[in-house]
Design the sequence.
């Protein structure tokens, strides 16, 4: 791997002679800021709107509606147009970018974005989950992320993020179906029924001495279907009457618990 | 001088790989409980630096894109590096203002400057540019920086028959636990895995991180990943002698068998000097 040794540090500001364009900008700023010419202000805003738009697209989290962000960015642009001091000699965009970005940061902060899962992200996660279920029925097997992204007209990254979010939302429920906040497995009994008993009998002997005995019967059942019978998660989901994502969460949690139970003292050398 | 990174990503400078960098940052955020707003700032600035490499460093073709993340107080440091003609000329143009079009094309630097507490641009010895960004966050100290002697060693993977390859090193395992599953899931999605197999890949990543902890012969967990349509190839190490096979057996649960082996389609131990590597093949369907 090539070395990352720094040899020179680039100076980040540059000065250059004023162009015709700069002069025109300067005139516009003077017309607005000194003489209150609203037409000049409008011209400036229109002219730099692509900058605001570009920043909204860059800074925006994919979970926030773009229109909302653009509005905030435009407000930042207005502030920059009003406050930019043309005599200072630096370019407008080097002043406007931090002003606009600052406006968007404040918006996120005020919206309580730091403490709550953004509403946009929640809604998208629900859409992704529903689309996954619908496509699974249509295709007769689990869809790919590409197929879901196409159906939902989302970017692949957005679907991947939504899937990660669905994993993370384990602690609280996303919709009314699980609104009582109880363990997901609580309702499994009804949907599994007789099948379950058969499994229970078969596995009883093997399990008694095993670490598996520390898990609940449904957790064991899902583990066995996946790792002994080699069923896909979607097949398991169909048998259990739950979603593939619930199977995935359950497997992840069960394996975590098993690892914690069997963790041996760290071997030396 | 240069710190040892907690996470080093070595990628090709394609636009889709910038998304992987963002996934890694999301994993980092989860590991150190970063405020989502701070993550958004870091994501935006780092994406700008990466996009500059994608667009400008290799004049239309692809080349190496390296990202280092160094935790440790008082700030989180991210370095984005290329070995091309460098982004310095481009970012210099950011202060140029011949029309907004150009300004919009070159606002990467002002954005980075607006979001990072400190940003520096340097030439890399032998060609290329390095952008160093420091982000002030109280959570930066949540991860232990690796010791200065723990140089990361990126594992390699033969690229025959693969659409793309990448490598990463990561320490400590608390960081690997949140980063590796995200990266592997994103790559599995790219390789057209079904959601079933993406979830399996996540289980595999969890299992790998847990089983390699304590078995490595270096401070960093190294993972090389090859992506082809409908399959992923992984190479994990360096592991202490005898451990590559042992971690597969160690994943055994009575009544279930070796969980690690069940989640992959093939596994193989390779020896390199005094270390071992575990090679794994994961297919989109069985």
Sequence:
């Amino acid at each position: 791997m090539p070395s990352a040794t720094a040899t020179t540090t680039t100076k980040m500001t540059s000065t250059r002679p004023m162009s015709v364009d700069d002069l025109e900008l300067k005139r516009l700023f003077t017309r607005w800021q000194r003489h209150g010419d609203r037409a000049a202000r409008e011209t400036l805003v229109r002219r730099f709107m692509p900058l605001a738009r570009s920043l909204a697209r860059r800074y925006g989290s994919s979970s926030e509606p773009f229109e909302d962000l653009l509005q905030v960015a435009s407000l930042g642009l207005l502030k920059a147009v009003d406050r930019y001091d043309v005599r200072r000699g630096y370019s407008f965009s080097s002043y406007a970018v931090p002003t606009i970005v600052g406006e968007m940061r404040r918006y996120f902060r005020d919206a309580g974005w730091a403490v709550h899962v953004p509403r946009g992200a929640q809604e998208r996660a629900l859409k992704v989950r529903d689309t996954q279920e619908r496509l699974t029925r249509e295709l007769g097997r689990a869809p790919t992320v590409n197929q879901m992204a196409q159906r939902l007209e989302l970017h692949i990254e957005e679907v991947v993020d939504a899937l990660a979010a669905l994993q993370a939302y384990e602690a609280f429920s996303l919709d009314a179906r699980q609104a009582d906040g109880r363990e997901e497995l609580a309702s499994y009994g009804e949907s599994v029924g007789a099948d379950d008993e058969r499994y229970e009998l078969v596995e009883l002997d093997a399990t008694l001495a095993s670490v598996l005995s520390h898990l609940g019967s449904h957790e064991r059942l899902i583990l066995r279907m996946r790792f002994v019978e080699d069923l896909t998660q979607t097949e398991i989901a169909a048998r259990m009457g739950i979603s593939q994502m619930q199977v995935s969460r359950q497997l992840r949690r069960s394996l975590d618990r098993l690892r914690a139970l069997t963790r041996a003292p760290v071997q030396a050398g | 001088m240069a710190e040892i990174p907690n996470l080093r990503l070595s990628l090709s400078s394609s636009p889709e790989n910038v998304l992987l960098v963002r996934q890694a940052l999301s994993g980092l955020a989860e590991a150190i409980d970063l405020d989502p707003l701070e993550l958004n700032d870091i994501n935006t600035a780092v994406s700008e630096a990466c996009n500059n490499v994608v667009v400008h460093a290799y004049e239309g073709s692809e080349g190496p894109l390296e990202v280092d993340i160094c935790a440790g107080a008082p700030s989180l440091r991210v370095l984005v590096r290329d070995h091309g003609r460098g982004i310095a000329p481009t970012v210099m143009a950011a202060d140029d203002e011949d029309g907004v079009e150009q300004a919009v094309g070159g606002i990467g630097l002002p954005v980075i400057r607006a979001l990072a507490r400190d940003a520096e641009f340097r030439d890399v010895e032998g060609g290329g540019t390095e952008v160093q960004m420091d982000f002030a966050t109280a959570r930066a100290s949540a991860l232990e920086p690796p010791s200065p002697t723990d140089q990361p060693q990126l594992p390699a993977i033969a690229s025959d028959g693969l659409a793309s390859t990448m490598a990463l090193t990561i320490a400590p395992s608390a960081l690997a636990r949140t980063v590796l599953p995200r990266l592997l899931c994103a790559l599995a999605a790219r390789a057209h895995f079904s959601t079933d197999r993406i979830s399996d890949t996540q289980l595999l990543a969890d299992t790998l991180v847990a089983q390699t902890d304590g078995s490595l012969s270096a401070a960093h967990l190294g993972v090389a990943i090859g992506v082809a349509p409908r399959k992923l190839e992984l190479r994990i190490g360096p592991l202490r002698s005898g451990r590559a096979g042992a971690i597969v057996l160690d994943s055994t649960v009575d009544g279930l068998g070796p969980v690690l082996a069940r989640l992959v389609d093939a596994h193989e131990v390779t020896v390199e000097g005094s270390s071992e590597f575990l090679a794994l093949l994961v297919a989109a369907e069985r």
Remarks:
- Chain A has three domains: 20-110, 119-181, 185-262.
